[in-house]
Amino acid sequence: MELLLIPFVFALVAMIIPQKAVRGYALIGALVSVVVGVVHAVNYVPSAEYFSIVEACTTMMGGKLPFFMKYGYDGIGLTMVLLTNVIVFLILLSNYDNQSIAASKKFVALVFFMQFALLGVFLSLDGLLFYIFWELSLIPVFLIFLWFGAKGKRRALMKFFIYTFIGSLAMLFSLIYIRSYAPSFAIEDLVAAQLTTVSALWVFGGFFIAFAVKIPLFPFHTWQPETYTKSPMAGTMLLGALMLKMALFGMIRWMIPLAPEALHCMTEVIVILGGIGVIYAAIIAIKQNDMKTLFAYASISHVGLIAAGIIVLSLDALTGAMVQIVNHSFVAVGLFLAADIIDRRLGHRNLLELGGIAQQAPKFAFWFAVIIFAGVSVPLTSGFIGEFLLIKGIYGYNWMYGVLIGTTLILACVYSFRAYQLSMFGPSKGFEFPDLTWAEWLSFFIVAIVVVFLGVYPQFLIDMVEPGLQKLIEIVNVK
């Protein structure tokens, strides 16, 4: 329970602390959550039971824990909890020098509330509780966008609201519908519900619309580039590094086990949509000159691959998806931080007006290169093992889809190295570019350490998530 309580309490207290202490308070609060998450990870022992942690919590409460409040985690959920806590710390750290945001009580409170909602999504084992936390996560992002977003944000804000609102209604319909086949909203009861193929398609479809919007999958993606561009950098990091991961997690935890009867009808459709998104978004990214917009389309391309890997339901693809979820989160923070550093120093992100930054800021150029390498899946980075397993799993499902989706490796190199070359190399355009501050340097360092560590020793993460993924495959096979 402390995993949820810590960010909630820090969110409340953030509004009453002295103004001059806000930035330090934010880092301390985020670090406390990281430490508590690490303690849970150290003490976690995989079990043959799907969610043995819940039984322990119920026993500790004397068996009186309300069914509605059931929560817990397996290795998959724990991975998402750790990811959320570390990324929130990185977001607050990387924005430390941005006084207009980092020193704002409202901003810090909203980030902690967002962390609380995200952890609720990843820990919920009751369908209605999952939905409540899912909806709660929209509030802080919406307010961050509204209060700190760029000029001309109204159109993007409305599009974001309409898309997510429709997706949420679709998921609520699915939950209410499947509840008519089960005695409660508890995940074990919903999984045990006996659905006809038609009923399963209704349930699957509602969840799919909600998750496809949030990921986002082609053709549900049109809200994302403009929203990313107009949102403040911290909001973009929350969206790209964490919020879309709720949907990928939801596919694994809820959509597939609740309605596996629909898989034989929907698998190929989702693989095709993911494949189209991979290629389409990457080609558009190549043509972008605004660095933030480029990275937004790159994100669509990468998550399309992850979604396709999840739905084919092979152990290789699912494992690769979890590795790539972690990799993409850290890479997204690193890339958007790089774009923000350029924007704050120069007042723009136009690649055609950049050049020669590496001469003035060699530390920035070095760390930016490390993040780029992880993004294009260079060996010894976490991106390599993640994409290798994903493409291997999709290739095993259908070799033609595997080959086509595998082109993401080439296209990612084109748009990533183009962005790096135009910004870091070539003649200077006559501007001054100070090198990294301590907070920026430390943020890049943490991101680089994680992606290199998981690239060298991915088994650390694989051992944590594989038991839960194997259980998911067993559930689908049994039903």
UniProtKB/TrEMBL annotation:
<dbReference type="GO" id="GO:0008137">
    <property type="term" value="F:NADH dehydrogenase (ubiquinone) activity"/>
</dbReference>
<dbReference type="InterPro" id="IPR001750">
    <property type="entry name" value="ND/Mrp_TM"/>
</dbReference>
<keyword id="KW-0812">Transmembrane</keyword>
<feature type="transmembrane region" description="Helical">
    <location>
        <begin position="321"/>
        <end position="343"/>
    </location>
</feature>
<feature type="transmembrane region" description="Helical">
    <location>
        <begin position="364"/>
        <end position="385"/>
    </location>
</feature>
<keyword id="KW-1133">Transmembrane helix</keyword>
<feature type="transmembrane region" description="Helical">
    <location>
        <begin position="262"/>
        <end position="282"/>
    </location>
</feature>
<feature type="transmembrane region" description="Helical">
    <location>
        <begin position="107"/>
        <end position="125"/>
    </location>
</feature>
<dbReference type="GO" id="GO:0003954">
    <property type="term" value="F:NADH dehydrogenase activity"/>
</dbReference>
<dbReference type="InterPro" id="IPR003918">
    <property type="entry name" value="NADH_UbQ_OxRdtase"/>
</dbReference>
<comment type="similarity">
    <text>Belongs to the complex I subunit 4 family.</text>
</comment>
<feature type="transmembrane region" description="Helical">
    <location>
        <begin position="160"/>
        <end position="178"/>
    </location>
</feature>
<dbReference type="InterPro" id="IPR010227">
    <property type="entry name" value="NADH_Q_OxRdtase_chainM/4"/>
</dbReference>
<feature type="transmembrane region" description="Helical">
    <location>
        <begin position="234"/>
        <end position="256"/>
    </location>
</feature>
<feature type="domain" description="NADH:quinone oxidoreductase/Mrp antiporter transmembrane">
    <location>
        <begin position="126"/>
        <end position="409"/>
    </location>
</feature>
<keyword id="KW-0472">Membrane</keyword>
<dbReference type="GO" id="GO:0012505">
    <property type="term" value="C:endomembrane system"/>
</dbReference>
<feature type="transmembrane region" description="Helical">
    <location>
        <begin position="190"/>
        <end position="213"/>
    </location>
</feature>
<feature type="transmembrane region" description="Helical">
    <location>
        <begin position="131"/>
        <end position="148"/>
    </location>
</feature>
<feature type="transmembrane region" description="Helical">
    <location>
        <begin position="75"/>
        <end position="95"/>
    </location>
</feature>
<protein>
    <submittedName>
        <fullName>NADH-quinone oxidoreductase subunit M</fullName>
    </submittedName>
</protein>
<feature type="transmembrane region" description="Helical">
    <location>
        <begin position="438"/>
        <end position="457"/>
    </location>
</feature>
<feature type="transmembrane region" description="Helical">
    <location>
        <begin position="25"/>
        <end position="43"/>
    </location>
</feature>
<dbReference type="Pfam" id="PF00361">
    <property type="entry name" value="Proton_antipo_M"/>
</dbReference>
<dbReference type="GO" id="GO:0016020">
    <property type="term" value="C:membrane"/>
</dbReference>
<feature type="transmembrane region" description="Helical">
    <location>
        <begin position="294"/>
        <end position="315"/>
    </location>
</feature>
<dbReference type="GO" id="GO:0042773">
    <property type="term" value="P:ATP synthesis coupled electron transport"/>
</dbReference>
<dbReference type="GO" id="GO:0015990">
    <property type="term" value="P:electron transport coupled proton transport"/>
</dbReference>
<feature type="transmembrane region" description="Helical">
    <location>
        <begin position="397"/>
        <end position="417"/>
    </location>
</feature>
<dbReference type="GO" id="GO:0048039">
    <property type="term" value="F:ubiquinone binding"/>
</dbReference>
